Amino acid sequence: MRSETQHALGAVALHAPEPIRELVSEAVLPRMRLATRLMDPENTGADDRVLWTAGQRGYRLLRAKMRLDLGFDAEPLAAIEAIGAQPTGVSGSSDSTSDPADTTSLPPPTS
Fold it and tell me: Where are the residues of the annotated region Disordered (predicted)?
């Protein structure tokens, strides 16, 4: 999986400006780390929520900045940047609520 990720991000690393490289890394790398951990039979799950939250935050930040750059409506950046700063309840995707700031970055409970 790591080599596939490196191959997929290679063009970004070579051609994109530094701010774009940072955004893509923040969106993709935590998700890849989480996927690797979830496939590890020795994973205790202790850090899964942290990686999930980091991946969601990075993805939502990248998505919002791309939408703003294209002139579309976007989730408020302040709401995204606050992800992980305070606990939130579990809900669906950001598209399923009237206020994207009401959504969570946590997966459903495993129990």
Answer: 86-111
- Angular region, 71: left φ>0, alpha ψ -120 to 50, beta rest: left
What's the pLDDT at 97?
A: 43
Looking at residues 3-26, what average pLDDT do you find? 77
Contact indicator for 94, 100 with CB cutoff of 8 Å: yes
Single-letter code of the amino acid located at 105: S
Read off the pTM: 0.62
The total of structural domains in the chain comes to 1
Is residue 108 a part of any domain in this protein?
A: no
Give the residue numbers spanning the domain of 51: 2-102
Longest dimension (CA), the chain: 45
Is the CB of residue 24 less than 8 Å from the CB of residue 9? yes
41 domain residue, yes or no: yes
Q: Which residue has the tokens 């700063």?
A: 85
